[in-house]
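Reopening this ticket.

The earlier resolution said the output was attached, but the attachment link was broken on my side. Pasting everything inline this time so it's all in one place.
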Amino acid sequence: MARYQETTQIETLHLPSTITSKGVSATELRPWGAFTVLEEGRGYKIKRIEVKPGHRLSLQMHHHRSEHWIVVSGTARVTCGEKEVLLSNNESTYVPQCTSHRLENPGVIPLVLIEVQNGEYLGEDDIIRYQDDYARTKD
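Inline output:
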């Protein structure tokens, strides 16, 4: 009998430091649900966001980033500027930089979505809150 010897060659992809990811952070709880940073690199951040049924995030704006939202499960009511739209599983929307927006879960199951942020600065302190159900606006 002939013997078969399998060899595996593993190729390593070396990325420039400008696009190497920083890793994953822990889940952060919020009054409306939670978010987890899945990956972050220079100029982008990817989050998994879960919004409890009947809850919503603040009406807010960001100076330094835009956002793409992709619904994984549940229903999202999205306010973006003057428009309001309902999104379901596998639907998405874009929130331009410096545009007021809000995410809401009008359904009875948790809303899960993936958020992709793009911009020069992606810190959590780049939030201007106009209205908030949890009294987090600055007077």
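Reporter confirms the inline version is readable. DSSP finds no helices and eleven strands in the chain. Residues 7-21 have pLDDT under 50 and may be disordered.
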